[in-house]
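Field reference: sequence -> structure
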Amino acid sequence: LKELGKLHSRAGSVILGAAVIDDVLGIILLSVVFGLAGGENPVRPIMQMVAFFAGALVLGQWGLPRLFVHLSKLQSREVSLALVLAMTIIAAWAAEELGKVAAITGAYLFGVALARHPEAERARITYGVDLVGYGFFIPIFFVMVGIEAQLGALVVAPLFTVLLILVAVGTKASGAFV
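Structure field:
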């Protein structure tokens, strides 16, 4: 979306929002399934997720905009970038540890809060985040995904693999289309 220049379009926002909702619903479903399969109560992780999202909403609505006002007074782009990166990592950690959702969800929610920042400051911070993200973090992410991939597991049940891929592609395509 970013490379096509569609990230900030209405469709890009809807696709990203749908992806986050999809991830959260998947995590809730996995929590319920694992809780029931392991004889545990799945209510606790779900309540942690609800509390995390409520806390993120409150912080995003009232706390972070005030912090960004002070951040905009800093003269150094490097200091602003370092603070934003630190806050992104804290948001990702909080999502994973406190909210029992994927770390990327916390980072995304922080980005949504950052989008409420005045346009000039957002552009200044975005430039640095793009450099660090595309130059360092995104390549590391793909290397880690490649290392974790176990392609041999796909040939154990080829019919299930094909069915799973078709369902995954079909649901993503239909969701994005809608």
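Note: The chain has a mean pLDDT of 81.
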